[in-house]
Amino acid sequence: MRSGWSKGELARQVNRRARQMGAHHISTDTSRVRRWLDGEQPREPIPRILSELFSERFGAVVAVEDLGLRTAHQSPSVAGVDLPWAGPQTVALLSEFSRSDLMLARRGFLGSSLALAAGPTLIEPMQRWLVPAPPSGRPEPVPAAAGSRPSRLSLPELDLLESTTAMFRQWDAQCGGGLRRKAVVGQLHEVTDLLQEPQPEETARRLFRCAAELAELAGWMSYDVGLQPTAQKYFVLALHASKEAGDKPLGSYILSSMSRQMIHLGRPDDALELIHLAQYGSRECATSRTQAMLYAMEARAYANMGQPSKCRRAVRMAEDTFADAVFDDEPEPDWIRFFSDAELHGENAHSYRDLVYVAGRSPTYASLAEPVMARAVELFGDDDEHQRSYALNLIGMATVHLLQREPEESTVLATKALKIAKKVRSERVNTRLRKTVDTAARDFGDIPEVARLTDLLTEQLPETAEAV
Q1: What is the mean pLDDT of residues 110-134?
Q2: Which of 106, 136, 339, 432 shows a CA-CA span of 20 to 30 A to 459?
Q3: Which of these, 96, 98, 92, lies nearest to 185 by C-alpha position?
């Protein structure tokens, strides 16, 4: 196979992904893979699993049809990303998708019935985010369903919904996406129920904003545990809800999450398009902190496209704009508070590190990354609320030491990251740690510290660990 996988290895990959999704009834073997290659059509969710596995393997979206397989019929809520930009439809789609995730996909199984969108199929529908709202500049009130009773949602209850969303976001940063994902999806479904009742206009706006934040967080948690199609669907629905709320800065934040996912999937061109769309849509209303975050993500996209000069320019813009944040008078929304000095250093360091891989293994970029990443590790080390970010930056620093051919230093950092990985439920952390240790074993397998770390990883973080 062009993927480099044997039939047995592909079978193991399919079984592992199925377990992560909760499809424990799937048990594939070499002979079954051989029958697929001979033309047999596997049942769902296997076609979607194969699409996701090969997409990740090749760093580009591989559709089910590209594999010579047929797709199953999908309901409107899961049939793509080109959705109607209208309040009632957004509420209905959010309600159906979150309900399906809860009832039909107890452990993310819904992701197996989705397909990732990329290129024009993704970008063109997202550009409609910029289409002006109704003349009043406010979302149209959501009509009441026939026979429904007037809402009795009080302002204190609405305040509690918003504070609960902030609490979920804090839990995600501390514990990873795998622990509270279903709770977030359940809360999102409750909010969509409220949006289907008659609401005063300002209440409806706040509920749409709450739905957008919860959908983005559900998408982020899905991304964190490896459910990529599910994550993308939530991000798209979140963007629709943010438009109904009239909240352009929140929309730009959601687009940045989509951009980060595209970088992860090896689509930096798409990531850059999404970031530029976010910047264009919020340039007159986003705070300096939000703009700095967008510049940092722009740098990541340029780095992964192998464009050093544009990457370094975006890094400088991120640093300069972040410095202006202290002069902002307006309070920051809760969703951007994560973008601290530590996060800025971490993003910029990862941009420099990515340049090493994409633009040639020049020691210049590794030397640029080292002090910036070291500062991120230092800052996150003093922050108990962002343990996942601490682990990711420890791993990033470990990769920098490997690039500088310093395996002993790399193992020290990777060992620290392993201790955190056992506590947080993040497949993203686990995957990056495994890749880093695999690289160390390949290049420096004869070093005793590397051999011990490889054994420790196998013992304490087995690949059969399930994502929720």
Answers
A1: 78
A2: 106
A3: 98
Q: pLDDT-derived band of residue 31, with 50, 70 and 90 as boundaries?
A: confident
Which sequence spans correspond to the domains of the chain? 7-67, 75-133+154-246, 399-468
Query: How far does Cα 430 stand from its chain's mean position?
Result: 15
**pLDDT tens column, 330-352:** 788 999 999 999 999 999 999 99
CA distance 169 to 216: 10
Q: Residues of 396-426 as b/e, b for ≥16 C-beta within 10 angstroms? A: bbbbbbbbbeebeebbebbbbbbebbeebbb
Q: What is the pTM of this model?
A: 0.80
Q: With contact defined as beta carbons under 8 Å apart, do 433 and 395 qualify? A: yes
Q: How far apart are CA 318 and CA 256, in angstroms?
A: 14
Residue 7 has a pLDDT of: 80
Tokens of 261: 């996912």
Distance CA 407, CA 64 (A): 40
Specify the pLDDT at position 22. Answer: 55
